[in-house]
Amino acid sequence: MVRRTGRRPGNPDTRDAILATARTAFAEKGYDGASIRHIATGAGVDPALVHHYFGTKDKLFLAAMNAPLDPGELIPEVLAGDQDAIGERLVRFFLSIWDSPAGKAGVAMLRSAVSSEWTAKLFREFVVSQVLRRVRQLVPMPPAEAPMRVSLVASQLAGLAMARYVIKIEPLASASPEVLVAAIGPTIQRYVFGDLSGVWASPPPPDTAG
Amino acid sequence: MVRRTGRRPGNPDTRDAILATARTAFAEKGYDGASIRHIATGAGVDPALVHHYFGTKDKLFLAAMNAPLDPGELIPEVLAGDQDAIGERLVRFFLSIWDSPAGKAGVAMLRSAVSSEWTAKLFREFVVSQVLRRVRQLVPMPPAEAPMRVSLVASQLAGLAMARYVIKIEPLASASPEVLVAAIGPTIQRYVFGDLSGVWASPPPPDTAG
């Protein structure tokens, strides 16, 4: 059993205790509801120590998820440039990450996400706060449409990761990245900027995407 | 420990032993390589008993996967009719299954599929032999293109299941089926019948989809 109080700052278990408490907080309160102050209290340490170890709340979340990369650094690069090719760029970027050594950590994150309701909630908070929210902020979409558009993008990219890296359905699993950019890029482009008038024909559900 | 020999036909463990042996056979040898005769030998029973309990190899596979429905019965219905609306029909059908009580078994199958390499392989054999192969047989696609086209369909539908039922990304998770039919139907239609000339520009990989 892990003791949660009376740790010395140099105790190597302190870092793990903070990360475990952070995972609980992000899953139970969500990204917006979780605070470094509460996480520090839960782990029995001073908030200054959490800042010292991890920096910002975003960086703490990345560490808690064992994320191999920081979406906050990569997403602005991918989204900059020609908006007519944003779908192709997103697919090419997504595949370059998953085909790299970081892809192993991605599969591990996906396996963990699917293993229980609790881990799925934690993963959802991560994807929404670290990826989808940033895409919504950086891509000029009508605000009422943006939550549905980015969740559609997420559905196709999650399925690409599942089909290629987890279930490994051929010939998609062995296809070259450029084949998949040509196949799936237009799907993403339509979800981001295309005519989805049939979707807006029914009133959109309330924005709960955070 | 489960004894594999000397069972009486009426032994309730016999059924479980056959199913466990079948899972191993389907994962290790694939659908085509697994035979009822070998599975019976592995479980220490007569092949006639396997046929008596489960019927065909397809039905044995369904039982081994705890599949809530038989894709072999449902797929021909869904694929019959107007080919210009096949994308919408597939999405509507997919959502009607996952939104029904059978959806819980679907989530359980997906969780299990993702949990290890072995279960992923078993799930892949199931999806390819019970779903994708039938779609390829029933939908008039050029044979050289069909494997990539159906694996693209599988990627979007797997991602829809992940985003809506496992990770639960809003507003997609709470959207009405018809909203998602309007959003994702055209994606599936393009994957099945649309112009994917950019995909065929590079030579397609060898057909390994079974």
Description:
The structure is a homodimer of 210-residue chains. The longest helix of chain A is centred in the N-terminal third of the chain and has 22 residues, at 12-33. Chain A folds into 2 domains: 12-64, Homeodomain-like (Arc Repressor Mutant, subunit A, Orthogonal Bundle), CATH 1.10.10.60; 71-199, Tetracycline Repressor, domain 2 (Orthogonal Bundle). Chain A is built from 11 helices and no strands. In chain A, helix 5 (71-79) packs across helix 8 (117-138). Mean pLDDT of chain A is 89; it is low at 1-9. Chain A is mostly helical. Chains A and B meet through helix 7, helix 8, helix 9 and helix 10 of A and helix 7, helix 8, helix 9 and helix 10 of B.
Outline the fold blueprint.
Two copies of one chain form a homodimer.
Chain A: H1 12-33, H2 36-43, H3 47-54, H4 57-64, H5 71-79, H6 86-98, H7 102-115, H8 117-138, H9 146-166, H10 177-193, H11 197-200
Helix pairs in contact in A: 1-2, 1-4, 1-8, 2-3, 5-8, 6-10, 7-8, 9-10
Domain HTH tetR-type (chains A, B): 12-72
GO molecular function, one term (chains A, B): transcription cis-regulatory region binding
InterPro entries (chains A, B): Homeodomain-like_sf, HTH-type_TetR-like_transc_reg, HTH_TetR, Tet_transcr_reg_TetR-rel_C_sf, TetR_C_16
